[in-house]
Amino acid sequence: MSGSIWFIMPNQTKYIFVTGGVLSGLGKGITVSSIGRILKEYGIKVTAIKIDPYINWDAGTMNPFQHGEVFVLEDGGEVDLDFGNYERFLDENLTSDHSITTGKVFYRVIEKERKGCYLGQTVQIIPHVTNEIKSLIRNVAENTRADVVLIEIGGTVGDIESMPFLEAARQMFIEEGPENVMFIHVTLVPQLSSTKELKTKPTQHSVKELRAAGIQPDMIICRSPIPLDKEHVEKIALYSNVPKKAVISAPDVENTYEVPLLLESQGVGEYIIRRLSLSPKKIPDFSSWKDFCERLKGPNGSVRIAIVGKYAKLKDAYLSVIEALKHAGAALGIRVCYEVLSSEKITRNNVENILREFDGIIVPGGFGQRGVEGKIEVIRYARENNVPFLGICFGFQLTVIEYARNVVGLKDAHSTEIDPNTPHPVIDLMEEQKRIEKYGGTMRLGGQKIIIKEGTLAYRLYGTKEIVERHRHRYEVNSRYIDLLESHGLIFSGTDESGERMEILELPDRAYFIASQFHPEFKSRPMKPAPLFYGLVKAAFERKQSSI
Ligand code: GLN
Predict the structure, then answer these.
(1) pLDDT per position as a tens digit, 98-129
(2) Domains of the chain, start order
(3) What whole-number distance in Å separates Cα of residue 190 and Cα of residue 155?
(4) Is 531 in the pocket of ligand 1 (CB under 6 A)?
(5) Alpha carbon of 365 to ligand 1 centroid (Å)
(6) HSE (CB half, 13 Å, CA atoms) of 315?
(7) What is the pTM of this model?
(8) Is 364 in the pocket of ligand 1 (CB under 6 A)?
């Protein structure tokens, strides 16, 4: 060894905090995902964190009516639907650590206090809670070794709930250095219905609010119904103290996958790269992303798919199902027009009228009694009329119930989730679930291995014997009924490794009739559609062509 000592500087992680102004639901998640996609095209390693300032530990116990679907990660994390956008745009699997909630932060602080980690101190929001937030963020940076960590702070600036998170972000700016931390503020620029004029005042106010929290934004992304003109850009730049080229116009688009292209056309990638002194590893190439966006428009035709569930009023409740349909459509060059229908009003008498105009049907996941009989009618209709059909999770379980009732002849067959006294519990609580008392995070969750039988439709679709798909359920096919169901023609083409838990069912004499206990939608990506969705869209298109 020579006398000289070499210090190897670790790669400095850069942090981009994304805040929201004026109101929620502006598409901050899509903005974060799009920025991530842009940086990825420059060869920069990115990851994303979502901060949800609610006291729930995670999204698992929340009603989809409030926040949209609960997205499930590979590691079983039940998280906000924005994670679906992150994974789809970044084409990367994220983990539960990327989801930071007030619940998780407070839980850790209180646990530490009880252990005596803060002996003698008064435990406070600053510094104890803010320290915990910063450590959770830095922990992700360390584990992923990403060049850039994007952090979306949920809610709107000014909310009491998000204050500790803004304060932690402000502190990180000081601690990491201004060259390593950047703030992007996403706001609304509304248009007056009377004069059609765009108004910048709400943006000015929300930037003021952000500054009151000690944060000066580096870039403002303006959501508006129409593009911003020069005059508005100048005004926002002046009042917000940001350069004009950092005021970005993000008007409404029909297809959210176009947002990365829209932002990049205004120089977002280059601006961030300069601001954070990043070193791009390649010349960005958006051609395959552009091609994907073109194919979404359906150069080869279109199909109509019905999604029949109980959360029909909020389309975000089925977000990943809808996106998976789009990915499958793009792979085939087919535009997928979908409609979310409520099963509550569907009966044997009206089912045909309601579904006649659709080329394919999905019965997605769900819980509880409401709308169940309508869904069962829909499944019967699909089976009897040979309409391409995909059942997911609860949809899989209801398909077993429909078959047991209408083909096997087991009158009143049901799931014990809905009817605990059914004479034929063809769907029953999983054995390990019977001992569980707590609700949060206790379902069978996340990526689990599935073995597919060769020679089946499932095998043709996946082209492999072993797959891993994401789950979220407590009930399953009751093993006592498997032989009986199979002797009447139902095929269980996928099981877990033990062979005892049913994972996929199909009817071989139908054009396309398949259902899975898992949720294939969670792993579908823009250029890697989920096989079960691909098969559905393809079969629906073939049916449509043959009926013309
Ligand atoms: N309610 C069913 C169960 O818990 C299905 C769940 C789902 O569709 N995600 O097993």
Answers:
(1) 999 999 999 999 999 999 999 999 999 999 99
(2) 14-290 (3.40.50.300), 296-547 (3.40.50.880)
(3) 18
(4) no
(5) 6
(6) 6
(7) 0.94
(8) no
